[in-house]
Design brief:
The chain is an alpha/beta fold and 699 residues long. It has four domains: 98 residues, Beta Barrel (OB fold (Dihydrolipoamide Acetyltransferase, E2P)), CATH 2.40.50; 93 residues, no CATH class; 191 residues, 3-Layer(aba) Sandwich (Rossmann fold), CATH 3.40.50.300; 159 residues, 3-Layer(aba) Sandwich (Rossmann fold). The chain contains 27 helices and 21 strands. Helix 10 crosses helix 26, helix 11 packs antiparallel against helix 13 and helix 12 packs parallel to helix 13. Bound molecules: adenosine-5'-diphosphate and magnesium ion.
Length: 699
C-alpha cells in the first residue's frame, strides 16, 4: 500500500504530465499520498437553491436552478463571449463564458433543468454568473452530500484550467485508484476509547462530505491523529534521551550550596521557588542528562534558582555557565551574582563580545584549567575558543531569544553533555509548550515573591502628554525612577531612531539639568557606553532612562516605579508584558503607562485593553496566541514547530490536552510500544522522521 501511495501523480487518471507539473510546482503535490492529504480549506453548503426569480442582490456564491432558453455568441472588442439565458419561466439571469465556447456550446442542453453554481455579478438590475459550474438537475439530485469541498488553489492553476471541479474529479480518480487501501494507524482500543471513526472513512469524508456532522467527525479524527503522532514522537524522544543520554549526575549537595542556602540567601524563597529547586535537584541527581525548561513570569525570581543550581554543580567539582541574550543583561547578572556569591570563595567571570583581549585571554585560560567556576556571558560563550575544564551545568536565560541550534552548541562544550536548564519568562500557553518544548521537562514558578504590589496599567493618548510629564515630576520628587521606552522595531529603521532622539530631546527640555538627569540607551551605542548609562541609572544618578527595547529582558532596577511605553500600539503583547515587568520590582507602587495615537487598529486595541485588564502572563499569552497564531508567536527558526495540515493549535488546545493524555497513558504502560495492540503505532512511526509533517510518511 505504502508503495502505491508513493507513486507520482503523473500516473493518475485525469492528471497527466502537464497538470502534474503544475500541481508539483504550485502546491508541492508529488505523490498520490500528497494528494490524499491535500485537504480542502473550506466547504460550501450546497443545500440551498435559488431561482432566477428570487436570487438576492449580493455577490455570494450560490446555486441557481433553471433552464437555458437561449444561447448566443456576442462579439467584443477582443474575441467574443458566450451568453446563455438561464430562466425559471418568470425571470432570467445570464450565464457567461469568455473562453471554451465551442466545447461548452456542444455540451449544453437547451430547455433542460440545470443547477448553476457560481458567484453573482450585478450590472444594475441585470444578474449574471461568469464561468458557472453546471450540473444537470437529474445528476444533482442523485449526488449525495450537500457539502462541497473547496481546495486551496493558485492563480496559475486556475489559468491552466485546474478548477475546483477538476480537483474534485482528480480526487474521485484518486480514491478509485487507492481503493480502500488506506491503513489504519491508530490502535483499535484508542479508536473506541475516544470514539474516533476509522481512517478510511475519515479521509473519504474530508474529500466527499455528506453532511456537516460527518465532516466534523472526520476532521476530529484526523486532527487527533496528527496531534497524536507529534506528541508520541516527542514523548518517545524524551524517554529515549533519558535512557540513553548519560549525563553528569550531581551526587552531592555540599558546602557551597549549604553555606549559601543557610547563611547568605538574601530573602526566604517562595514556595514555588523551593519546589522548583527540588525538581531540578532531583533531575540533576539522576544519571540522565537534564534538559529542563524553567518557566516563570517576569519578576518571579528565576535568577536565584539558577544560582542555587550552579552551586550544586560546583559542589560536584564542575563548572557552570549562564548565558543571556543581551550584553546589558549579562552585565547585570554578573554584578548581581558576583555580589551574591561574594561571601563564598567562588570565581565568577564575565565574557561578552566587548571584553578586551587583555582580559579575555587570562579568562579563557582559567576556564580551561578550571580556576574559573562560573562564567556569565552572552552568545560569545557559544563560540569555539571557549573551552571549559569540566562544564557540568549550562543555563540559558530568556531562552526565547535563542535558537535551538545555539542550545545544541552548549552540549558540545563538554565530552559528556552538560545538564541544561533553559529559563524563559515568555509565558508560552500550555498547549503550545506541549508541542514546542514537548521533549523538555517543565518546571514552573507560578508565584511572585511576597510584597509585590500590582502594577497599575493605564492607557493614555498622546494628547495627554503634559499630564504625564506632571506625573513623572511627582514620582521623581518621591525619589523614584522612570523608564521611557521607544519602539525600535527594526534596528536599522532610520525613522525609529529619529523618534527616539526627538523624544530624548523633548524629555531633556522638559526635565533640565541640574534638577534632573536623563540617561539614554539604544542598540547603536557601543557596549561600554551602554554599560556606563545603565550603571548611572541603576545607581540612582539619573532619574529617567530613555531607551529602546534593549532593556526589555531581565533588567532589574527595583527603584524604578514608572514604565512609559511610547507608541505602545506598535509593540506585541509579550513585549509589552516584558517591558511592564521592569517595574513593580521594589516596594514602590508602580505604574505602566501605554501611550498611543488616537487611531488604533482592532488588534492594537485588543492588545492595549488586555494589558490594562490583566497582569497574568499566561492569560496574556493566550490572547497573544489568539491574535497572532502559534507560528508567529514562537518565531519559526527556534520553535521547531511542525506545520500542521489540519490541526490548529490556536483552536484545538482542548483536543491537544486530550491527545497528550492518551499518549502519556500509552507510554506509561508500554514504553517501547512492544505490545501487540501498539504494533500499528510502531510501524507508523518507523515511516516517519522528525521535522516533517507526519503524513509525508504514514500511508
Ligand atoms: P526573573 O524571574 O524575571 O528573572 P529575577 O530573578 O530578576 O526575576 O527576580 C526579580 C526580583 O525579585 C529581584 O530583585 C530578586 O532579588 C527578587 N526576588 C526573587 N525571589 C525573591 C523572593 N523569594 N523574595 C523576595 N524577593 C525576591
Ligand atoms: Mg530574569
Amino acid at each position: 500500500m505504502a508503495v502505491l501511495l508513493q507513486k507520482p501523480i503523473d500516473y493518475l487518471k485525469g492528471v497527466g504530465p502537464n497538470r502534474a507539473q503544475l500541481l508539483k510546482k504550485e502546491l508541492g503535490i508529488h505523490t498520490l499520498q500528497d494528494l490524499l492529504y491535500f485537504f480542502p480549506n473550506r466547504y460550501i453548503d450546497r443545500s440551498q437553491h435559488f431561482t432566477p426569480s428570487n436570487v438576492q442582490n449580493t455577490n455570494a456564491e450560490v446555486q441557481v436552478v433553471g433552464s437555458i432558453t437561449h444561447l448566443e455568441t456576442v462579439k467584443q472588442q477582443r474575441g467574443s463571449r458566450l451568453v446563455a439565458t438561464f430562466s425559471d419561466g418568470q425571470s432570467h439571469i445570464e450565464l457567461v463564458w469568455f473562453r471554451g465556447h465551442q466545447w461548452i456550446q456542444k455540451s449544453l442542453q437547451l430547455h433542460t433543468p440545470y443547477v448553476a453554481f457560481g458567484r453573482l455579478s450585478w450590472f444594475g438590475k441585470k444578474c449574471s454568473i461568469a464561468h458557472p459550474e453546471l450540473e444537470l438537475m437529474e445528476d444533482h439530485e442523485q449526488r449525495k452530500g450537500n457539502f462541497q469541498p473547496v481546495y486551496p488553489s493558485t492563480e496559475a492553476l486556475l489559468k491552466s484550467g485546474i478548477t475546483q471541479r477538476v480537483m474534485r474529479q482528480v480526487m474521485v480518480h484518486l480514491f478509485e485508484e487507492i481503493n480502500a487501501g488506506i491503513q489504519e494507524v491508530l490502535p483499535p482500543q484508542l479508536l473506541k476509547q475516544y470514539q474516533l471513526i476509522g481512517k478510511t472513512l475519515a479521509l473519504t469524508t474530508l474529500h466527499f462530505p455528506k453532511s456537516q456532522e460527518a465532516l466534523s467527525r472526520a476532521q476530529y479524527r484526523m486532527k487527533f491523529e496528527e496531534l497524536f503522532f507529534v506528541q508520541l514522537q516527542l514523548g518517545l524522544k524524551k524517554i529515549h534521551r533519558k535512557q540513553q543520554l548519560k549525563g553528569i549526575p550531581f551526587e552531592i549537595v555540599g558546602a557551597y550550596f549549604n553555606d549559601f542556602f543557610y547563611k547568605h540567601l538574601p530573602f526566604p524563597l517562595t514556595e514555588a521557588q523551593k519546589r522548583v529547586v527540588r525538581e531540578i535537584r532531583a533531575d540533576l541527581k539522576s544519571e540522565a542528562q537534564m534538559n529542563r525548561l524553567l518557566q516563570g513570569d517576569v519578576g518571579s525570581g528565576k535568577t536565584i534558582v539558577a544560582v542555587l543550581c550552579m552551586l550544586i554543580a560546583l559542589d560536584n567539582g564542575m563548572q557552570a555557565t549562564i548565558v543571556a541574550p543581551t550584553e546589558i543583561l549579562a552585565q547585570q547578572h554578573f554584578a548581581n551574582i558576583s555580589s551574591l556569591l561574594n561571601p563564598l570563595k567562588i570565581n565568577v567571570g564575565l565574557l561578552t563580545g566587548s571584553v578586551k583581549k587583555s582580559v579575555r585571554t587570562p579568562l579563557l585560560e582559567e576556564l580551561a584549567n578550571g580556576k574559573m567556576h562560573i562564567l556569565i556571558g552572552t552568545h560569545a560563550v557559544f563560540e569555539q575558543p571557549v573551552n571549559f575544564h569540566k562544564l557540568g551545568l549550562a543555563i540559558i536565560d530568556e531562552q526565547h531569544r535563542f535558537g535551538v541550534a545555539q542550545r545544541a552548541k552548549l552540549w558540545r562544550k563538554n565530552s559528556v553533555p552538560p545538564n541544561v536548564l533553559v529559563m524563559t519568562a515568555t509565558p508560552i500557553p500550555r498547549t503550545l509548550a506541549m508541542t514546542a518544548y514537548g521533549d523538555l521537562d517543565l518546571s514552573v514558578i507560578d508565584e511572585l515573591p511576597p510584597g509585590r504590589k500590582p502594577i497599575t496599567t493605564l492607557h493614555r493618548f498622546d494628547s495627554k502628554r503634559l499630564a504625564i510629564f506632571q506625573f513623572i515630576k511627582e514620582e521623581i520628587a518621591k525619589g523614584h525612577q522612570i523608564y521611557i521606552v521607544y519602539p525600535l522595531i527594526q534596528e536599522s529603521s532610520v525613522l525609529d531612531y529619529k523618534d527616539l532622539m526627538d523624544g530624548y530631546e523633548s524629555i531633556v527640555r522638559e526635565f533640565p539639568l541640574p534638577n534632573f538627569q536623563v540617561s539614554i540607551v539604544h542598540g547603536k551605542m557601543n557596549a561600554e557606553d551602554k554599560a556606563y548609562e545603565m550603571e548611572r541609572f541603576a545607581s540612582g544618578k539619573t532619574q529617567i532612562m530613555v531607551a529602546t527595547t534593549v532593556i526589555e529582558v531581565g533588567v532589574n532596577i527595583p527603584n524604578a516605579s514608572v514604565m512609559i511605553i511610547e507608541s505602545a500600539e506598535r509593540f506585541g503583547l509579550s513585549q509589552l508584558h516584558q517591558l511592564r515587568g521592569r517595574v513593580g520590582r521594589g516596594a514602590n507602587k508602580s505604574y505602566c503607562i501605554l501611550m498611543t495615537g488616537n487611531k488604533l487598529s482592532p488588534d492594537a486595541q485588543t492588545r492595549i485593553q488586555t494589558m490594562v485588564r490583566t497582569q497574568d502572563g499566561f492569560e496574556l499569552a493566550e490572547v497573544d496566541l489568539a491574535l497572532r497564531g502559534p507560528g508567529d508567536l514562537m518565531g519559526t527558526q527556534q520553535s521547531g514547530l511542525i506545520p500542521f495540515l489540519i490541526a490548529n493549535l490556536k483552536k484545538d488546545g482542548e483536543l491537544l490536552k486530550t491527545v497528550r493524555h492518551a499518549v502519556d497513558n500509552i507510554l506509561l504502560h508500554d514504553i517501547n510500544l512492544m505490545q501487540q495492540e501498539n504494533t500499528v503505532l510502531r510501524e507508523a512511526l518507523a515511516l516517519t522522521q522528525q521535522g516533517k509533517s507526519i503524513w509525508k510518511y504514514i500511508g
